[in-house]
Records
---
Amino acid sequence: MGDAIIYWEVTTIDEVMIQIDSVRKVYKVGSEKVVALNSITLDIKRGEVCCFLGTSGSGKSTLLNLMAGLEKPTKGVIKIKDEAISKMNEKQLAKFRQQYIGFIFQSYNLIPTLTAVENVSLPLTFRRVHKHPREKEAKALLKAVGLKQHMHHKPTQMSGGQQQRVGIARAFVGTPSIIFADEPTGNLDSRTSEEVMNMMLKMVRDRQQTFVIVTHDQEIAKYADKVVYILDGNIEKIEEKTDDIRRYVHHEE
Ligand code: ADP
Ligand code: MG
């Protein structure tokens, strides 16, 4: 008596969330052509934590922007939940992004004139959520990222780590299926970056979200289920932590 009963529930998720098929991206700069991505083919599963690792200029941000529908590929197709986002028009894309995608930027990209609560609730404004439920969710998320005391601070009144937490809360608002992060710890010291990584991991695992991170930092790769090494616009190799994607959901009562 008195011992905790522990249940282990194994959930296998092998639904493809993001499908990248022969994607190429060439930028034209004057008369020069820059091949940012040569030919990328890859699937990312639902609930997977996938890290793209590569040096500066290898094409990581380009790929992330294509996956998030912020740019169009020169060739190839990107599907999210079986919908070809690479073929959508701006209006369809905006709606799709609002519904399914959260984005965390290296440079936080907060609106300087807005408080933490206002920044976090902004995506819900676009979804036409009313003020009260909007602020309620924003406040709950800010609490979850440890910013209970900073709800009404503006970006300049917060440290880098705190601003990044606001950026994280904003990406999670409305529980999008996919969270994209471009060098999310790039401006943070190593201790803060570990805290921020652990926090993001807990949030995506709790919500069974797909998490795609691009980084040049080897340390970040250790958090991922799958590490995709990018070199000169190509996939160099892929390392997977487990044979198949299994989630061990730990319940204690
Ligand atoms: P990473 O994020 O890995 O540092 P990027 O995806 O930003 O790499 O860039 C890949 C390559 O594409 C680089 O050579 C970069 O200069 C080029 N590039 C990226 N964006 C543009 C752009 N908007 N116009 C022209 N060249 C670009
Ligand atoms: Mg980049």
---
Amino acid sequence: MQIVLIPGDGIGPEVTDAVKKVVAASGVKIDWIIGPAGLDAAAQYGDPLPESTLDLIRKHRVALKGPCTTPVGKGYRSINVKLRQSLDLFASVRPVKTLEGVKTPFEDVDLIVVRENTEGLYAGLEHQVIPGVIESLRVITRAAAERIVRYAFELSRNQGRHRVTFCHKADVMRMSDGLFLKCAREVADEFPFIDFNEMLIDNVCLEIVQDPTKFDVLVMENLFGDVISDLCAGLVGGLGVVPGANLGARYAVFEAVHGSAPDIAGKGLANPIACLRSGAMMLDHVGERDAAARIEASVRTTLQKGIGLTRDLGGDGNTETITRELIQNLSA
Ligand code: NAI
């Protein structure tokens, strides 16, 4: 099977290399097709996300991506935003589940954040009105709103989940979130057997840090989803353990929630679990369900045993020691 691998920047090559090793040990044979993206690609091709890399994903349909550095406030447009928009990866899906062995204030968290990935404030439409005044346009379309809410309901149905919470701010952004909310209610009508709950995004933030166990599937627009995804990652152990997927009708790109971690890059300290679990979601997506389940089980065993863990997990190990454990703990 051929799958595109974007190693990315910073700790990207370190964590994707660990994933390659664990996937190989699970018995799934993958011919990884390397797709350059990130700072090196910018230097080499004059574009941090070369068209040739997008073409590779168009050809092979599925990719695993390491994090890419985006310089703040200048230079290139975000690679991730461009990737999602170019391939119409309209749904970001982040499962957030308590992991035994990772100390957090809560037990039994089990929710999924579904984020609209292509528009909202990330549509990239900003301009200077007059010096000192900048406008950012928040784009909400009926088509994208219906599509993402329907996706959340279908995901709930397929995974036996019971409640979809639509998060919004329609009391203030009456037109844009007003349209989104209207679409959400209409789509919810198609799924009478799944509870539909609508909540203001600020209230979601309050309640989710008080008791995340009462949430099931959450769906929202782009910026809210970006923030809530990281907040939820923090509820179960942080960026080093939470996987993610960017899905469209034709293509799928799997990637960890975390960034390129320049503070620890090149030191062999990166935790590969988030990227590995994204790899497990990818294996599940391509039908390698058994290997995906075994990798997930190995992650849980490794965290429970607590041997060889990286520093962010409270251990004194490194990428190499944790990868070794993850391979050893793979069941036959
Ligand atoms: P970051 O996620 O890279 O790092 C935040 C903190 O978490 C740092 O202390 C880092 O050491 C730690 N951390 C992150 N991943 C870790 C891992 N796997 N193991 C151990 N520790 C880990 O976020 P930051 O610093 O805000 O962003 C750095 C760069 O990454 C920026 O250029 C940003 O644009 C980019 N970024 C890229 C993403 C992507 O490609 N999907 C997502 C988020 C940020």
